[in-house]
Amino acid sequence: MKRRNFLKNSSLTAAGLVSASAMVACKTETKPEETVVAPAPVKPIKPIVVCTWNFLNATDKAWQVLKSGGSSLDAVEQGVMVEEADVTNETVGKGGRPDRDGNVTLDACIMDKDGNCGSVVCMQNIAHPVSVARKVMEETPHIILAGKGAEKFAYEQGFKKENLLTESTRKQYQEWLKTSKYETIINIENHDTIGMLAIDEKGDIAGACTTSGMAYKIAGRVGDSPIIGAGLFVDNEVGGATATGVGEEVIRTVGSFLIVELMRQGKSPQEACEEGVKRIMQKNKDRKDFQIGFLAINKNGETGGYCVHPGFTYREYSEKGHENKEVTSFYS
Ligand code: ASP
């Protein structure tokens, strides 16, 4: 936005200079000089929180944190924890669907206003991977911990061991074993990862993303959600972006980083998300078998989203109230 306004102003100024010199060169010219009015600065909307899909309770929780003066980092952590704890959400945290060997493995990451970040990948038996990711960020010199190492670190930090498979996901897995030929399901319905972005009263941006990944994935598979730059990216000077859908495609374009960089170059969150999806589709001409949804926010609190197939929505909560936003799609 700033750069666009700058370019607009520069060209208006240049036009002003040209018309002034034309008046000097030709004294008979009587046309009055154009007045250049500086555009009104965009007033940032704050606080605000957005998340992928229609997770009312998660945004509600994050909004409470923001409204009571809490930081965007606390808001996104506590917001996505609501979905991690909800066993009826079979794509995130406890109650997430297992890999093809029957183990629930979780991925999550978190990023703050200073570019600090933490991530856990392929971690079992811990219900709140986003909080472990935050501990990695705050308590270690590292950014990513994986598998058994992440789990061991979580116990050291006081997290308790839990069985993440529920009766429902265990039964579904047993059904899947009967018919699947041990093949991972990649389809456009396989989603519901929560990615959340927030701006607090100070105007600082943070984000978090958490998932159990693709259902019945090959053991050890990690998607985009815990990868900084792919499933999530925040730059406090510009904005933030997050993704849901088939992670392999998001990783190939470093999707969230791409979207933040496009916003830095002057695109709105909406335009940046559209360009992000188009880049993915350029590498997947005519492929219609996967869904991806991007969500972005800029420093002014403007938001946007775009997806491959219709159906992706995002939830937004600000002083203006809360809203479930339908987004347009590449294949409409
Ligand atoms: N992006 C996640 C992954 O690939 C899945 C999802 O959003 O449903 O692991």
Automatic annotation (TrEMBL):
Signal peptide: 1-24
Site (Cleavage): 192-193
Entries under SUPFAM superfamilies matching the protein: N-terminal nucleophile aminohydrolases (Ntn hydrolases) (SSF56235)
Domain of life: Bacteria
Gene3D superfamilies: (Glycosyl)asparaginase (3.60.20.30)
Residues annotated for substrate binding in this entry: 221-224, 244-247
InterPro entries: Ntn_hydrolases_N, Peptidase_T2
Molecular function per GO: hydrolase activity, acting on carbon-nitrogen (but not peptide) bonds, in linear amides
This protein's UniProt keywords: Signal
Active site: 193 (nucleophile)
GO cellular component: cytoplasm
CDD domains reported in the protein's UniProt record: Glycosylasparaginase
Protein name, UniProt field: N(4)-(Beta-N-acetylglucosaminyl)-L-asparaginase
Native species: Flagellimonas hadalis
